[in-house]
What does this fold into?
Amino acid sequence: MAAVLHSAPRFASNEGVLDALTKALGDKLVVGREAHGEIVLTVARPQIAEALCQLRDEHDYQQLMEIAGADYPDRPERFEVVYMLLSVTKNHRLLVKCCAAEDTPVPTVTTLWPVAGWLEREVFDMYGVIFEGNTDLRRILTDYGFEGHPFRKDFPLTGYVELRYSEEDKRVVYQPVELAGGGGGGGGGGGGGGGGGGGGGGGGGGGGGGGGGGAGGGGGGGGVWGGGGGGCGR
It folds into this structure.
């Protein structure tokens, strides 16, 4: 008989989980649902850290695997911040999310999981979500002089500036985005002589231009944690 390496089931069931967590979180929970085999809990933003601490300490969701963002510009609170938790003892995953506007900070969870410092920086960099209490909320994927937040759906595909290395200045420089260029022309001539007549001809030319693109994107949509119907009680 093969040895049992761990008592956790290979595939954990969702049976009873939603009801138990709904009861445990009480008024901290805005809405809970099961979709595509996942339990998704939307928590009131001011209580997100408290709810996550409760899930970690009382319900054995020990590991924070990821923090992601999503952008829904038509909503009053356009951003969703999604926390993906794992119980290593139950072999069960859980999605917990809260909503925020551009001017409503989300409480940091760096006091619960130190790795959240990096994950919150990524959501800040890509979406501009502010995490209150994060003492090192700097950009992490773009450079420190970058303008805007590229995963917002209103971020231009070309970006705002181009970044290049200047041989003249021997450093990296910014310059306005240039999308088109090129053109040309021609000339002509004529002549005559020797008691005779002569003529010449001329010509012309033209040119064209091209365009380029940049980077940009839109935060997640659809699927389990981005579904419009389940976002923030909607």
